[in-house]
Design goal:
The protein has about 325 residues and is of the alpha/beta class. Helices cover about 35% and strands about 20% of the residues.
């Protein structure tokens, strides 16, 4: 049987990969530095490990014996993670994990990259292998550096390696300081939300869609860097308006009250032809449905409801 180790499995993205992995026939081992979460799929085998601690990666690989690796663990706390020096520690920890995985007979690994690796131009359509890689943050540079080293080492050792460049993600369990999370929280609390003009164009993907996309990538034989995005350009103003409509408080949004951030791209979108054509995956959740599910989750979270059960009430797509 194929056994997969998911790091960062209790995080925003990682938790949404577990059910699709089980549905795909994997024996799933989930690693988290916190107390293993309750209410998840009962078949998942949890391991509590902090990968930044010396020897932790080797012990984790020994106890899980994975054939596949989905490495999502990293420090993420918008926007502080962009300049955090702990990014350097995560490069070293990730290389140690990858080395232990390969030494134990691991066959295929998918590592999480970021769109922040790409050049920050006024307008950029990110194509794998064509758009310049020129990160402007320590976070983006650390991710890109890890990719360069890991890819060279994988070629040398025969490890199958794919690099998932993740674009803008939203949905249940999103960090409270990210755009969608901050807007949803504030509006549900009856607080005003100040925004810029909102004409910036981005690519947003619902987190459950991303979870399924990562599983499809891991199951495929696609190698190298691949954009993980919806492929649907959307203005930030449209994203905020969709959230505001679901909270029924659109009058609290103050469009244009904030200036645009210096150096911010007007347009940053993803080419997803490899994800669509080679992996064979496409999104199933549009912005309207994603906004509804996101706001519903935040209503439960703000109310302190212990079991949000959103995933159990929502339809599940077959793994593709």
């Amino acid at each position: 049987m194929n056994r997969v180790l998911v790091t960062g499995a209790g995080g925003f993205i990682g938790r949404h990969t577990l059910s699709p992995l089980l549905a795909a026939g994997f024996e799933v081992h989930a690693a988290t530095s916190r107390e293993p979460r309750r209410g998840g799929p009962p078949a998942v085998r949890w391991h509590r490990r902090d990968l930044l601690e010396p020897g932790s990666a080797r012990a984790l690989i020994k106890s899980s014996r994975p054939t596949h690796l989905l490495h999502l663990a990293w420090f993420l706390n918008p926007p502080a993670h962009l300049a955090a020096e702990v990014n350097l520690d995560w490069v070293q920890a990730s290389l140690g994990l990858l080395g232990a995985f390969r030494a134990a007979g691991g066959r295929r690994a998918a590592l999480a990259g970021t769109y922040a690796e790409y050049s920050s131009q006024p307008a950029v359509h990110c194509l794998e292998g064509e758009t310049p890689i020129s990160p402007t943050s320590l976070y983006g540079a650390a991710k890109h550096g890890l990719h360069v080293i890991a890819a060279a080492w994988a070629r040398q050792t025969g490890l199958e390696l794919c690099w998932a460049r993740i674009f803008n993600v939203y949905g249940p369990h999103e960090h409270a300081t990210s755009l969608v999370g901050a807007v949803a929280r504030a509006l549900l609390r009856g607080e005003e939300v100040a925004t810029s003009h909102g004409r910036q164009v981005r690519d947003y993907i619902f987190v459950e869609d991303l979870g399924r996309a990562l599983v499809a990538l891991l199951r495929s034989d696609v190698a190298g860097a691949i954009n993980m995005a919806s492929g649907v350009p959307v203005r930030l103003g449209e994203v905020i308006a969709a959230i505001a409509a679901e909270t029924e408080r659109p009058e609290l949004v103050r469009v244009g009250a904030l200036p645009q951030r210096p150096g911010e791209s007007e347009r940053s979108t993803a080419d997803v032809r490899r994800l669509r054509d080679e992996v064979g995956w496409s999104p199933s959740v549009g912005l309207r449905e994603g906004a509804q599910l996101t706001v519903e989750w935040w209503r439960f979270a703000l109310a302190g409801t212990p079991s949000y059960a959103l995933a159990q009430r929502r339809r599940r797509e077959p793994v593709r």
